[in-house]
Structure formats: C-alpha cells, structure tokens
Amino acid sequence: MSKKLKIIGTPVPKHDAKMRTTGEAIYGHDIKLPNMLYGAILRTQHPHAEFIIDVSEAKKLPGVVCIITADDVDTNHIGYKRDHPILKKNEANCTRDEIAAVAAETKEIAQEALKLIKVKYKVKKGLYNPHDALKKNVPQINKFSSGKFENKNIAEKFFYEHGNLEQEKKNSVAIVKRKFTLPRMTHACMATSNITAHYTKTNGKLLLYSSTQVPFLYQRDMAHALKMNPSDIRIIQPIIGGGFGSKLDMHPFEPICALLSIKTGKPVQILYSREEEFIASPTRQPMEIELTAGVDKNGNFTFREIEIIKDNGAYTSWGATTPFVIMQAFSSLYKIKACRFNALAVYTNNVFAGSFRGYGNPQATFALERVIDLLADEIGMDKAEIRLRNANTKGEITGQGLHYDTCGHKECLQTVIKKLKVEKKKVEKNNRFKRGIGYASMLHVGGGAKIYRSDGCGTTLKIDPYGFCTIITGSNEIGQGSETVLAMIAAEELGIELSKIKVINTDTDVKPWDVGVHASRTSFVAGNSLLGAINILKEKLNNKAAKLLNEKTKSFTYENGNIISPSNQQIALDKVVREMHFTEPNELAIASYFYEPSSKFQDKDFKGNVSGTYAFASQSISVEVDTYTGNVQVLDIHVAQDVGKVLNPLLLDGQIHGGILQGVGYALTEELIFKDGELLNPNFHNYKMLTAADVPNIHFYPVETNDKQGPYGAKGVGEAPLIPTAAAIANAVCNALDIEIVELPITPERVLKAIAEKKNNKKNK
Amino acid sequence: MEFEIESPKNITELCKTIKSYRSKSFRFGAGYTDLLMELKKHTPRNLTVINLAQLKDVSFSSIRSTTKNIQIGAMITASKLVTDTRIEQLFPVLQQAAHNLASTQIRQVATLGGNMCTASPSGDLICAAMALQASCEIMNDDKKIHNLSIQDFFIGVRKTALKKNEFLFAINIPRNKKRTATLHSGFIKIGTRKSMECSVVSLAFHLQIDKTGKIIDAGIAIGASAPTVKFAQSACQFLIGKKINSFSEKEKEEFANKVLSYASPISDIRATAWYRKEVLFNISKGVLE
Amino acid sequence: MEITFTLNGKKTICHIKVSTTLLELLRETLNLTGTKPGCHEGECGACTVLINGKSVNSCLYLALNTNGKEITTIEGLTKPNGGLDEVQESMIKNGAVQCGFCTSGMVLNIKALQLETMQNKKVPGSGIKNSPNRNEIKKWLEGNLCRCTGYVKIIDAAEEVFNKGK
Ligand SMILES: Cc1cc2nc3c(=O)[nH]c(=O)nc-3n(C[C@H](O)[C@H](O)[C@H](O)COP(=O)(O)OP(=O)(O)OC[C@H]3O[C@@H](n4cnc5c(N)ncnc54)[C@H](O)[C@@H]3O)c2cc1C
Ligand code: FES
Ligand code: FES
C-alpha cells in the first residue's frame, strides 16, 4: 500500500467516546424493560457438600414470581467440556455453585427470598490442591467429565515436543531447574456481570441483552444448554463495561436468567453484586510450572522441558485450553532447539479458571524469563546480551511450525535495552532503598488463532443516498476501540468523513458471523474483512463512476466525499450511489465479504501455523525496593512492541497502558486468596487493584514491521502489553536484592521473607 | 437495609433525641462511610439512626484554638484536617494521616468522630491523635461534658468507653511545648499499594526538638498491631532528653524494640504477624534515621 | 420522607425511604443512569457525584442528607445545548475513555479538583495554587478505579485541563 494514508495512523478519539463521557451510553446495568423482574442466585454455603433444598417458604413471599432449582429445569450441561450443570443437583463442588434462582418484582424481594430458601448441607471434605486430587483413592470431583484420562480428576492433558532433548541436554554447559507458582487473578471489570433475558411465549423467541464477547458461539451454547433452536435466540450486546477475556465462556447465570424469563414469560434481569463478581467469575489459571532449561557455552539456548499442573477448578471452561498458548511461548519465544512440554489440567473443588487477557502467556513468560536470568548468571553473561543473542528473527519457522514472516523481536529488545541504559545511573540512596532492572519479552498470536472451525469475520457495507456509510460487522466492541478502527479504515478508503460512518455490531439477528473477541484478533480479522467488502463495493462504484464521467479507467481515488479519476475529473460519491440506485440496472451500494485468515488448525501434535501473524514485545523495567517494608515501587517501564503498523496511536497507547497496569497488578498486588475453597477477599478492599497513585512512568515505542497479512500491515496488540510485565518486574526485584522469586504476586511480605532468608543463609554459611 | 432516622438540627435536639431513645436500639451516623458499610451487611431490626450530619452547631464541626489546646470538633472531616493550615503547621502527623485515609471522595465525608468511634485498630486518625496525646471531650444527653484521655477512650477491638447516652463532641490536642520547637512529625502507613489501603501496620510519631537538637517531647503510636491503637510510652520516654541526630545503630534498635513491645499483632489475609512485627521494627528504626 | 435539593441546576423534590442511598435515588427513582454502580462500598469511585461542588461516593451517602444541597451528576455536566464540559472534552481528546464505566466518576472527580483549586486556591496538602502537578492529580484520583486505561490517559486529560488554565 504505497499511497499516503490520511486517517490511518492518526490519533482519532474513540468513535463513541462522547456517549461514554456524558452518561448517555446504555450498559447492561441501565436496561429497564416494562414488567421486568429481578433475578438472584442462591449459591452453596460450602465449597463441597451434599444438600437438600426446600423453596416452599420462599415461594410464599409476596412479590416472588418464580423459583427454580435443578429439579425444575431440563437443560444440557455447559462449558468447554460440557461438564458443568447450570443448576447443581444434590451436590455442590465449589464455592460459587448455583443451587437455586429466584425471579421477583424487586431486587430486595429477590434477596429476601434467597434468605428464605432452606438448604440442609452435609459438608464434605474437598480437594483443594491439584496434587491431592491426583492421588489414588480420592473421589471423582466432576461426575460429568468424560474421564478419558488415566486419572479420573484430569480434565485435560497436553503433550508437545520438538528437537532432540537428550542431545541438547548434553550440549548444555548450564542447566537450571525451577518450580514457579502462579496465583489466581480476576478480571474485575468495572461493570459487574449482567444479563437481561426476554422470552416471548407467543413466538418462542428468546432475546438476550448480554455482554458476551463471542455472541455467535454464545448463541449456539445457549441453544444447546436450553435445548432450543439457536436461531430462536437473538443476542443484543449493550455497551460492555470491560471484558479482558471474562466473557469468552457462557456462565451459568446467563442460561439461568433465560430460564427464569422462559418460566415467567417476563423480562428478567440479573446483575451481579461486586462480591458475587469476585466469587463467581472465572479467574486466570493458577498453576505450577516446573521449567528445566539449558544454555550452551556460547550462550545459545538449548532446550526447555516443562511440567505444568493447572488447577482447573470444579468445571472446565475455555481456560483449560490455555496450554495452546503456553506451549507456544515455550516452544517458540527465543530460538530454542528442543522443547518438551507436559501439561495437566486437574479438577479440584476450587472455583474454575477461565480465560483472561494473555491466555496463559503471562504465566509461561514469567517462568521462562526468570530462568533466562538464572541461565545468564550461571554462565556469567550479560542479561541483555543473552536475550539479543537468542532473539527470534524474520523468516524463522519455529520448532512448533510458526512462520515469522515479519518479526520485530530483536528490534524491540534493542530498543528497551538502550532506553533503560540511559537512565540506569544506579542511585543507591542508602541501605534502605535498592534499585534493580529487569528485562522480558513475549510472543503472542497477532492475527487471530484458529481454535474454532472458523476464525473468520463477516462484514456488510452500505452507502446510503446521502453519502453516509454503515458498516455492519460481525466483530464486537468491548471497550478496546475496534469500532473506531473500522470507521477509520472506511474513512480512509472511501473518503467519507468519520462523522458519516456508523458501525453496527451488536445484534446477532443483523450482523454476519464472527468468532468473537479473543486472541487480539479484532482489528486484524475484522479489518481485513472490512477491506474485502470495501474492495467489492468500490468495484461497483468505480464502474458507475466511469460511466458517469465517461472515463475508461477503473482506478479512481476517493477523497472528501468525491470519486476522482486520474485525469482529475470528479463526482460526488452520494451522487454515484443515487445514480446506481435510480438508473438501470438499479443497484444498491452494498457489499458483503467474509474474511477467513490463512491460519491453520494445528495437527494432533500441536504443530502448525496457528495464526495469520505473530506479535512480539519486550519490556525493560526499573524498580526500587524498600527493604524496610518490602514494598516494590516500579519506576519506569519501557515497552517496545511489534504492532505491525500503528493504526491509531491514541487507542494503541490505551491498550498498552491498560495492559501494563494489569501486568503490574499481576506482579505485585492482585491475588484471590482462598482457604479450603472459600474466597477470603471478595472485595476491592482486599483484592488490590492498582490505583492512579501507583502508576509508573510508561514509555512506549511502537515497532512497525508491516505485516503483509494485516490491514495496512497491522498486527493484534491487545494482549501483549501485560504478558512480559510481571516477568520483567520479578527480574528487576531479583536484580535489586539478589534474591530469588518463584511466586507471584511479589507482595511486600514475600519480599521481606526473601530478604530474611538470604540473611539466614548467609549466617548459616 | 431498613432503618428509621432522626435528624436533630442542634445539640439540644440531639440530646433530647438520645434521651427518648434510651431504651431503644440506635446508632449515630456522621459521614456514614463506616456505618453504611456495616448496615449494608447487616441491619438489626427496629434500628434508628440518629443523624449527626444535619446538626448546625459550629462547635461540633470546627477547629478552635485555645491557649493550651487545639480543639477539633468530632464532625470535622478528614479533608478539613488536610486543608487546615493550623493542623498542617502544628501537627503534621494528623494532616498526613488524614491525607492518607481512603480516597478524596471518602475524605470529604469521613469524620474524625466516626473514625474514633468505630475504634478500629487500624483507624488512621486515631493513631495520629494518640501520638499527639489528645484527650476526648465526651458529651452526654444532659449536655454535660467530661474529658477522657485518648488511651482510656479505647477499651477493645471496635469498643470505646462511650456509654449509650454519650457521644464524642471533640478532641483536644495539647499545643506543642515551645513555639520554637522544630517538629519531626509524620504518619507511616504500610500496605501493598500506595492508596486506598487499610493499614497493615501504621506508625504515628510526633517529636518536638529544641534548638540544640534535644528531643523535649515525643509521642509514638502504632496501629493495626494490637486490639486497639497503642501509645508506645516507654519508646517515648526513651527518646526524651536525647539528641535527635546522635542515635547509634544500637540505640535505634533499642528504640524499635521498645515500640515493638506494644505490638501483639495477628495474622490475617493482609499480612502475617511476623510481617507486621518485622515492618514495625524497621520503620520504627527509620523514624530515627 | 420528602427531601428538596437542587439536581443539576433544577429544584427537585423527592419522596424517599429514609435508608435510600443517593446512588439508588439517582439511578432507580430519577433514572439518571450515568452515575455508575461499581461496588456499592466506596472503593471504586464509579458512583462519584458532586455535592456542593465536592466529589462524594453516592453509594455511601444517604439521599436524605442531600436535603438543601446542590447535586451535580454526569448528566448535569453537559450543557443544555449538548456541548461538553472541558473535562469531558479533554477526556475524549486524550483517549482516556475505553469501556467508559469509570468515566462518569473520573470526570466528576477531576471537575471537583478544578472547583477546589478555583475556590481554595490551594490543593490540599501541597500549597500549590490553581494548577496541581501530575503527582497531585494521581493522588486526587486514587479513589477512582479503572480497569481499562491504566490511568495514564486519564491523568493526561486532567493535566491538560489544568495546564490550559495557566
Ligand atoms: C473505601 C473505604 C476506605 C477507608 N479507608 C480508611 C483508611 O484508610 N483509614 C481509616 O482510618 N479508615 C478508613 N475507612 C473507614 C472510615 O472511612 C473512617 O473510619 C471514617 O473516619 C469514619 O467516619 P464517618 O464519619 O464516615 O463515620 P460513620 O460511618 O458515620 O460512623 C462510624 C461509627 O462511629 C459512630 N459515630 C460517629 N460519630 C460519632 C460521634 N460523634 N459520637 C459517637 N459515635 C459516633 C457511628 O455510630 C458509627 O458506629 C475507610 C472506609 C471506606 C468505606
Ligand atoms: S459504587 Fe460507590 S464507590 Fe464503587
Ligand atoms: S475505561 Fe473501563 S474502567 Fe475505566
């Protein structure tokens, strides 16, 4: 694309920012339908128990319209492995388990009714540690699992390998082995989960106002759960108050709300309280990663051997498939000759893990980058140099079969290493405050990820007689700004003002198919889909314009609402549209296109080029640690990211900053704390999200590699920023204090413990 | 959340209201940042809230100087404490504690009285007021006032010495000993993030130093380390008469150990007892560095 | 009980249950849904409104205590002709809005800081007049959680508002 871009690459504010700044935007919480009932869910009091339930008292409460338990409904199980009953019958297996639901005239009555439901529990001893769940002679936790593995409590299993591991071990001059423990983190979207369901009895249609990020998969899942025809279910997405992966799975409260509406024939709304949001949302996968890795005498990485045990929780969600991404980091980030990877997802009586921005990659990257520092120490090599030496390169085909047609890894690394050096003047104020620096990189899919039979997106594009353009796209807006990017593309290509472009993307009855928001794919896939539609539409417009202008050429340019020929004849775009419509052969200015990325399903050994393109990023981070309190202050974060091409610097910055701060939270403060399956900190008071006061200086350097496949050369960007952050911070803290960190978050207490242990070790020596 | 409300407009009405509720269950409400949180979780039946927020009496919500004291009305909000120049100059420890309490929005409404009467072991304003050796002015429903030292005001976890017919009217903070004294005064709040923290441990110190560098008075209090906020008497005694710049490493540690002797922390989800002690020791030492 | 207050410039009379919070009154009775419920416990700031020009969490404020006071919600910041307040403009221009759920609260809290510096000529605890610096802005916004933006652009937006006033 040689022509000069006018709109792409400029800082266009978000398409609908105004509406979101004035309070006019309608979120799920703001919907109020006539005769709407309020739903509420009763959850088990004990993470693991048998129970008998009696709703008769609650039913008598005036204002209660409907109460359902497992006995009242005929449904299929949900979840990635269909091992999750919507309402649990007789047995609860984790603290969030739904055991009954109420629809009532007011929220207060619904809550009151929950209190009147009598439940008799027979508490059982749960299995809260995956190692315990793997022992012989323990009960089967999930009775609905396929049980196809050697141990009844294994939910999913992955094995991958490339290269000659034994040989590479021999080639290594240093080998490091460590076990890392990663915590449960939660999305904590500012808007809690919500849904409004409206079933109309007369025609058997179900309308859902739902915040799902994958409406078409959701429609199918909902239909399966409720034993309905998918086409009878229409999903409208209100404005969504944060996603980050939390809305990839369909969660039990959603079909529950639908069931309450079906039973009552009235609209029903369920809004989570903040406490419920903490207890009953999917989490980032907690896991133990044991990593053994080697390096040869020249500082080249030789092999990685990985054993992972993931705490799956009581049911299986999409999150169980995170090893796809995890193994990719281990097999293909930095050049690596041999890799062997084993991962188990193990059922426990904990809450189940789901998908979360980064999808396993922050965990993998933490282990991997921590071990790189240790390997560098072992052979006495500089930590920047060892990374540069092993960085991925353009044209590389990795052991797993990823094709790096473009690759900004080295440039990213060089940039952040250089930038941090500039301000590296180690100011060691006194004994109390210690400074350190750390590096980390990441690799992530940048052009979708083929995990479903199609990873595509459809677009219908039309221009009306007044020269306004409507983009009807399959893709979704969850706050990341995808609408804006699409509008910019249309403005760029069609020469139509941004204010005359509308994006329609919220209604499954209207919009064409799309797999949903995941894998940082939206700009890439939806952008390409839109470009496809634009090309078709332009062909029609060009033909008409040529006729009207008496031009032979078909290569017109589109600017300022006009279509312009090479000989500088021009005609208004809306005029061409009207002429198309009102003169024979009477045609509308409308076009549809479906884009399917070139990515392939991986083969049964998990090999194959799973994404259209790959994104790389490196971060270098400086920290100051208060050795009196253990508090880690992140000073500067330098981040260089291979984004392919900057489509909109304003939105891009937003993704970078937002991702990084989530990464800092993962590194330092955020953790759901459980004891015997029960959550101890279901509130913002004790689940510590960072505040504005904690924000470090973030310096961002986009690296443009112009990927052939991406729209204008762009790659996916959304997940990358948070992936290497925790790893780089951990490396910086270790560097500052000369300690080892094998666990996140790096709380002040853990830091002081590590310092104390170091002192003790010295004493004992 | 269901309750009844009484909104007296002045102290006379307030006293009358309290009298008429003698045998019934009631709670005071000031800024409501603690009370509503509590009532949202559980509201006892037939509860009445006596609303202090609409009282017009200035004395209840102002800061006044007397020759001996600075008197701070119970209805003074944290944000008032932050912006008042007298507090800033005379009692930096209190200003800092107020400035680090919760958030801007909460500080606009959260009152000194509410903080004191919640009597949380991690109450930040309590900790600062204790280091300043304040005394409490307590009023009863006969409008009688009596004084109680701040240390006697707190009798257990979330328990004060207030009787049912009493409320906190104000606190009195003795003026610094000498106008010319320099102050080493501050509030240290330990948590995992910079803001919105409930103290894992807190330390309030207010040292008055004469021209020669000698410490002429000292107030040290610790929070979140025991069932109530504690005044570290022996640590204060240790400092008085010594030169602020002359402490040896050993003396600093001795001082820190004295502070630590008042701590009997528990382990909870925020931190273990071990951590609380370790940090308290370190930051106590830090005060003298 | 009956309360009378000024809501976004208009005298308003409401009948309320005494235990109603201001957040409930605004969203459920008055249908002003621009004020967002993020936690109902004073931790997130999404429900921030201005009471007599000061930012307050409406979820921890009893509606009855607004009697006689002036309330401004996000809806009241927009001018009658649809024009935006300079804080809103700055938020949009700086890319400070992603999902937008925190935005009403952020905007109003920045507005409160602007009003504060205009009236008191002093930013709490700093002594700086009129134009708070970046760290003071960060501190001021500590009670407004945002999960999307990492705060950077929001702080930028606020800074721009104050720099303009210089
Ligand atoms: C998000 C959040 C963060 C917080 N962070 C902090 C923090 O960092 N540090 C901290 O110390 N606290 C913190 N708090 C607690 C609380 O804000 C403070 O304790 C505040 O000072 C309470 O004041 P209030 O006026 O809101 O009290 P209210 O809630 O009105 O009252 C609290 C209690 O005191 C009683 N009471 C109030 N006034 C009187 C009086 N004059 N006489 C007798 N009894 C009275 C009430 O009956 C009630 O029991 C936080 C609270 C929240 C919600
Ligand atoms: S809803 Fe009020 S602070 Fe969160
Ligand atoms: S923009 Fe989404 S929470 Fe702030």
Q: What structural keywords apply?
A:
heterotrimer; A: 765 residues; alpha+beta; Aldehyde Oxidoreductase, domain 4; Aldehyde Oxidoreductase, domain 3; 7-stranded mixed β-sheet; 5-stranded mixed β-sheet; 18 helices; globular; C: 166 residues; Ubiquitin-like (UB roll); DNA polymerase, domain 1; 35% helix; binds flavin-adenine dinucleotide; binds FE2/S2 (inorganic) cluster
Oligomeric description of these chains: heterotrimer
**Percent of residues in helices of chain B:** 25-40%
Mean pLDDT level of chain B: 96
- The N- to C-terminal Cα distance of chain C equals 46 Å
Distance between the termini of chain B: 50 Å
The low-confidence parts of chain B are none
Order of helices and strands of chain B: EHEHEEEHHHHHHEEHEEEEEEEHHH
Major sheet of chain B: 5 strands, antiparallel
Total strand count of chain C, please? 5
Task: Tally the helices of chain C.
Answer: 6
Tell me what you see in this structure.
The complex is a heterotrimer of chains A (765), B (289) and C (166). Chain A has 3 domains: 17-24 and 456-595, Aldehyde oxidase/xanthine dehydrogenase, molybdopterin binding domain (Aldehyde Oxidoreductase, domain 4, 2-Layer Sandwich), CATH 3.30.365; 31-125 and 194-242 and 247-274, Aldehyde Oxidoreductase, domain 3 (Alpha-Beta Complex), CATH 3.90.1170; 287-449 and 603-764, Aldehyde oxidase/xanthine dehydrogenase, molybdopterin binding domain (Aldehyde Oxidoreductase, domain 4, 2-Layer Sandwich). The longest helix of chain A has 28 residues, at 522-549. Chain A is 28% helix and 24% strand. With 765 residues, chain A is α+β, with helices and mostly antiparallel strands. Chain B has 12 helices and 14 strands. In chain B, a hairpin with a 4-residue loop joins strand 6 (135-140) and strand 7. Chain B is globular. With 289 residues, chain B is an alpha+beta fold. The mean pLDDT of chain B is 96. With 166 residues, chain C is α+β, with helices and mostly antiparallel strands. Chain C has 2 domains: 2-76, Ubiquitin-like (UB roll); 86-163, [2Fe-2S]-binding domain (DNA polymerase, domain 1), CATH 1.10.150. The radius of gyration of chain C is 16 Å and the shape is globular. The chains are: A alpha+beta (765), B alpha+beta (289), C alpha+beta (166). Bound molecules: flavin-adenine dinucleotide and FE2/S2 (inorganic) cluster (2 copies).
